[in-house]
Design brief:
heterotrimer, A alpha/beta, B mainly alpha, C mainly alpha, B: mainly alpha, ABC transporter involved in vitamin B12 uptake, BtuC, two-stranded antiparallel ribbon, globular, disordered C terminus, C: mainly alpha, 2 strands
């Protein structure tokens, strides 16, 4: 490298100039046409949450396109911008700021708790409705008037599962295995309390890692304890790894859990998911023709199976329509207030695939489903109607 | 009680055998080609995806596996060496190591964007038999058998054949090997090809249990590095012992230790070995070349 | 010597920081936030550049040091610790951790520091997640207050830039000091440096520990910037991302971290049209850069400027004006 240069180094000016140009280009937020309603969709497109966020985005996109084809909301077209949170709270905060700079009508997403935690204060401050995909209880517990979700919070469906294990499975001794992340830890806490309330004994309390390779230790712990029921609170892949091993080891205790009857679990676990039971919020497995039709349209468009995230994002768009029509005008700051306490039914809003009631804290009460796996298919045993 | 310990031992050895296969390739690359491959875990994912891809195209499994092997040899062997390692190596070992980190990000995202973000099932053996209270499943037994055969064959090749000895000489000192008339370039290429074969085998063995997902490589790779360090770098034996030991220790620790820290076990072992026995269980002390 | 004239390098860095500060007045909150993120990551990248660029050691623990700094700040500020004190503590704590883990790893040759730091990052993540009594576990620590008077987005950016300026000047001074000359000798040729009496191991350890300390400083800015701390941002991915920042900018180059962090923060923006494909492109660019131009974008720019100057002897004056 040359040691002495005549005059000031050329990069002294070139580099900052370049940088300025770059930043100037990068930081203009999209602004919607006056009459359009701009929807911001922050989602986990890359990073560890990608398998969730991509489906969330696809569900929202599909709903917006369908809605626009039917004439939009009160004559307004919807436009949308997708933002990648990279499954990273610091990036999530950046993209939500960018979305808010563009004055969106509503925010749909993200799904991961950490990302919602950093977004929520900003949307609240801006008075913009945020409908997110997280299930953790604490997300709606802070009294934020602008946060909503489109599925049951995790603790809403755990007590029914405990009661089912006690009354129908006649279980006294329960083994629980849970995944050591925000989903599993939240479920574990609620479950411990619920089991105690119901007078059931927790004989194995075992945590697993997301992405854990070998489940042999967990299976052997369960095998040694001879529980009356096994409560599995893992993600789909871990469900499959565990349940295959349980079957292989000839452990016959009934399995109940969070996602053990999901289509993805069935696909991954093969025959090992047979007979598993789950109580969950109304979602993609609901025995409703409209959900089946949604499933078909989604598959035709994206060539991947939709999951509950896709369905939630889809319904969230139609929630916005319902709330806006209730107000009679497109008022971004009034949307949240309009949604609270609302009951939306499919006969009025065909995109809402089953009735939903929105609670005061932004949670949803739309009933729950008891499902099992029979012949490689998820089968609904019972629809538990909403409390209201 | 005895059946439980025996059962844990079998499970630990079965998973450890797969770690061993991956760690052997990792060691060979480090020794033979100064390549610290941080993408080794993702190297296992690629053939797994390829096998699923070929079966989706209608090939039966017994044809899909050799087809995927061919892809692995081409991409993870030849292309990896020619396109990435060769141009990078004269910039230094450090630059190459960082390049493999970028390669890991690249592979994971290519797999995600082309293969999909969700997990896929993978065909494997089911069932097994009881030996007293001990249950032995065909999948684990196959893993162990394949590993034993592979390692023995590799050992025989390295110590008994001309080419194998030439490879070892190249790994120990390429300049001397060159003076002895060994085609060093060819030997190094062979190292990459062997690694590609090993990761394909590992993919076939681990995927029925672990499933196939774009980011599975991270966890596998991490454990394989530890196995290689714990075993000692300069011999195939080292990686084998390291892999098996890690599999067993991990399994027992997850059963009897605090399960919130189960993934800490390989990492703690790694740090302890670097502290107290940096050349590993079977490695030679004078190993300072890389 | 530093590559290029040392005074000009410092002037360039400071001019860049000043320009960013001025630019923030015409940007919306999002732009201001991104610039803050840039400043924060640059601090960590400068630290890592000392380890990687000067001492030639791969550290994959920078994310851990950022995490330690972030948690220390998030935990202590509510107890009335002034921000400056938490910043100093975060730096000091990470310096100590760097010595503790660097010492055994650097006793052995090879890439052992890379492996030990890889293990450390994995372990630290587990501690942050599992020890909820201290860290809040997966629910993390929310609503972290920013230090008064830097509560608004723009004011906090100014604080980040102030810290970055101090770090820039300190690093520049360090590299000009006798210690720094040893660092540079180490970068140019470790064997020759050893034969000239430089304590290679000692300086390598020192560079790692200083790098770690700057990771801690980065963390103590990160916590009040994002106002939320949880374990996942401090996993291995951040270490890799910081490492790539240093490489893309140019490892061992004074200006490298500033440029590398800028690329990393803005690239997802530039490649927005590719949606989820941008990481594929980024990884490819990194590999290409490593193969073709191992001294990174700054090296590339320098080479292009040199060539231009040689090709057109009258050019420098114009180049200076542009």
């Amino acid at each position: 490298m040359s040691r002495s240069r005549p005059g000031p180094s050329p990069y002294a000016l070139a580099l900052p100039a370049l940088a300025l140009a770059a930043i100037g280009l990068a930081t203009t937020a999209p602004k919607a046409m006056a009459q359009d309603l701009q929807i911001a969709i922050p989602a986990e497109l890359t990073g560890s949450g990608a398998s969730v966020g991509v489906l969330w985005r696809d569900g929202a996109e599909m709903a917006i396109d369908e809605l626009n084809a039917k004439g939009g909301i009160l004559g307004h077209k919807l436009t949308y911008t997708v933002y990648d949170t990279q499954t990273n709270p610091s990036v999530s905060r950046a993209v939500i700021q960018k979305a808010l700079d563009g004055h969106p009508y509503a925010v749909l997403g993200p799904v991961y708790s950490g990302s919602v935690m950093v977004d929520e204060p900003l949307t609240q401050k801006a008075g913009i409705t945020e409908i997110m995909g997280g299930v953790a209880d604490n997300l709606t517990a802070a009294g934020d008037p602008t946060i909503f979700r489109t599925t049951a919070a995790q603790s809403q469906v755990l007590m029914p599962a405990v009661i089912y294990m006690k009354d129908t499975l006649h279980a006294k001794r329960v083994a629980m295995i849970w995944v050591n992340d925000d989903y599993g830890i939240g479920g574990h806490k609620a479950m411990q309390a619920d089991l105690k309330k119901a007078g059931l004994q927790l004989v194995v309390d075992d945590s697993a890692e997301a992405g854990q390779i070998s489940f042999a230790p967990d299976i052997l712990k369960i095998r040694a304890a001879h529980p009356d029921a096994i409560f599995v609170y893992l993600h789909e892949e871990e469900n499959a790894r565990l349940m295959k091993g349980l079957k292989q080891q000839g452990i016959k205790s009934p399995i109940m859990g969070g996602t053990v009857t999901d289509q993805q679990t069935i696909k991954l676990a093969g025959g090992a998911a047979e007979g598993a039971l789950s109580i969950g919020g109304m979602d993609i497995s609901a025995p409703v023709p409209a959900v089946a039709a949604f499933h078909k349209r989604f598959l035709a468009r994206f060539h991947v199976e939709p999951d509950h995230n896709a369905l939630q994002a889809y319904m969230a768009v139609w929630m916005i329509k319902a709330g806006t029509e209730k107000m009679g005008k497109a008022d971004a700051k009034g949307l949240a207030a309009a949604l609270h306490g609302m009951t939306i039914t499919p006969d009025k809003q065909p995109g809402i695939l089953f009735p939903m009631h929105i609670l005061a804290n932004g949670d949803i009460d739309n009933g729950s489903l008891l499902t099992t796996v029979k012949g490689g298919q998820q089968v609904v045993l019972k629809v538990i109607p909403p409390a209201q | 009680m005895f059946w439980l310990l025996a059962q844990l031992l079998v499970a630990g050895l079965a998973i450890g055998a797969i770690y061993a296969l991956i760690a052997i390739g990792f060691s060979l690359l480090w020794q033979g080609a100064q390549t610290v491959n941080f993408a080794q875990g993702d190297f296992v994912s690629l053939p797994a995806f390829a096998i699923l891809g070929f079966t989706a195209l209608g090939l039966p499994l017994w044809l899909a596996i050799p087809a995927a092997l061919a892809v692995a040899v081409l991409v993870l062997g030849l292309l990896f060496k020619r396109v990435l390692v060769q141009p990078m190596l004269h910039h230094g070992v450090l630059q190459l190591a960082i390049a493999t980190m970028a390669l890991s990000i690249f592979l994971e995202n290519v797999l995600k964007d082309t293969g999909g973000a969700e997990a896929y099932p993978f065909p494997g053996l089911t069932g097994g038999f009881n030996l007293g209270a001990l249950f032995l499943d065909w999948q684990s037994l196959t893993v162990l058998a394949v590993t034993v055969v592979t390692v023995s064959a590799l050992n025989a090749f390295l110590s008994r054949t001309r080419t194998g000895r030439a490879m070892q000489a190249t790994a120990q000192n390429p300049s001397v090997a060159r003076l002895l008339g060994i085609d060093v370039e060819r030997m190094i290429m062979l190292t990459f090809v062997i690694n590609a074969v090993l990761v394909t085998l590992a993919a076939v063995l681990i995927s029925p249990v672990y499933l196939v997902k774009f980011d599975n490589g991270g966890q596998i790779g991490l454990t394989a590095f530890s196995a290689a360090i714990v075993g000692g770098f300069n011999q195939v034996r080292g990686a084998v012992v390291g892999g098996l030991l890690l599999g067993v220790v991990e399994t027992f620790a997850a059963t009897y230790g605090p399960d919130q820290y189960r993934t800490a076990v390989p990492m703690v072992l790694l740090i302890l070995f670097v502290l107290f026995r940096p050349h590993g269980l079977l490695g030679r002390r004078e190993e300072r070349r890389v | 010597m530093m590559r290029g004239r040392p005074g000009a390098l410092l002037a360039t860095a400071l001019a860049g920081i000043l320009a960013v500060g001025l630019l923030s007045f015409v940007l919306e909150p999002y732009g201001v936030y991104l610039l803050s993120l840039w400043a924060v990551y640059t601090v960590a990248a400068i630290g890592l550049n000392l380890t990687l660029g000067y001492a030639g050691q791969i550290s994959l623990a920078q994310a851990t040091f950022v995490g330690v700094g972030a948690y220390a700040t998030a935990l202590l500020m509510p107890h009335g610790w002034p921000f400056g004190a938490t910043l100093a503590l975060a730096g000091g704590l990470c310096f100590g951790l760097g010595l503790l883990f660097g010492f055994p790893a650097l006793r052995v040759q090879g890439h052992y520091l890379a492996f030990v730091t890889l293990a450390l990052t994995t372990l630290a993540f587990l501690v942050m997640r599992n020890e909820a009594w201290l860290t809040g576990g997966v629910q993390g620590i929310a609503h972290i207050a920013r230090p008064v008077p830097f509560t608004s987005g723009r004011a906090f950016l100014m604080l980040c830039l102030l810290v970055l300026t101090l770090v820039t000047v300190a690093t520049w001074w360090l590299l000009r000091s006798p210690w720094g000359r040893a660092f540079i000798a180490l970068r140019e040729n470790p064997i020759r440096a050893a034969s000239l009496g430089v304590d290679v191991r000692g300086y390598t350890l020192l560079s790692f520990a200083i790098g770690a300390a700057l990771g801690g400083v980065c963390g103590s800015l990160y916590a009040p910037l994002v106002q939320y701390v949880e374990p996942s941002p401090f996993a291995l991915a951040l270490s890799l991302s910081l490492l790539l920042m240093v490489v893309v900018g140019g490892s061992g180059s004074f200006l490298g971290p500033y440029v590398g962090a800028l690329v990393a923060v803005l690239l997802p923006e530039w490649l927005r049209f590719m949606q989820d494909y941008y990481l594929v492109v980024y990884a490819m660019v990194v590999m290409l850069l490593l193969a073709v131009c191992p001294d990174g974008l700054v090296g590339l720019a320098g080479r292009m400027l040199d060539r231009q100057r040689r090709g057109h002897p009258a050019e420098p004056a114009d180049g200076g004006k542009a």
